Prior knowledge:
Layout: E1 2-7, H1 9-12, H2 21-26, E2 34-39, H3 45-56, E3 66-71, H4 74-77, E4 79-80, E5 83-84, H5 88-103, E6 108-111, H6 119-139, E7 143-144, H7 147-151, H8 154-163, H9 170-182, H10 184-189
Parallel strand pairs: 1-2, 1-3, 3-6, 6-7
Antiparallel strand pairs: 4-5
Protein name: Lysophospholipase L1-like esterase
GO molecular function: hydrolase activity, acting on ester bonds
Domain SGNH hydrolase-type esterase: 5-175
Amino acid sequence: MRLIAFGDSLVAGAGDPDHLGWIGRALLGRRSITLYNLGVRRETSADIAARWRAEATPRFTDEEPMRIVFSFGANDCYPIDGKPRVAQADTLKNAQAMLTGADAHCPVLLVGPPPMADAGVSARLEVLNENLKVLAARLKVPFIDVFQPLEADGLWRAEALAWDGAHPGAGGYQRMADLVAAHPAWRAFTLID
């Protein structure tokens, strides 16, 4: 199976000294899955929407099952000049375009954004997370909510605060990976016949 992960620096695993991030940790030991981690630091949903198709197409094959994971939102909610970089309505439009476009080619999964140390950003992320959950349900795309569990997770918060307020270290990414890997949607999504 080929699994393509699109997202921001949290998908890329920024801050993880092992350079695995949550997606690499969720797939540890899964040798039959080839991971293409296409997380890019500072990217918003608009940036990801503009590039995902061109980057996914060369990785598609008829010889192996394909899967696409999307996870984004933190950079959309981060303020520039007092306003979020991407309006929430636009984030949801971008998400719908990506999810429906990718779903036409292969199974798709959406992992919601984790919390941030900044209370304002985190509040916007919490609302976005709920709206993404509703959108995914409407589109019949599996959604994994990591926001609430990580908001209450002392290790996630401590590691993010210790570095830059957004990115945890190895322990925090492991917590997120454990949440994702334990979810029934992930287990079904990564099942290989």
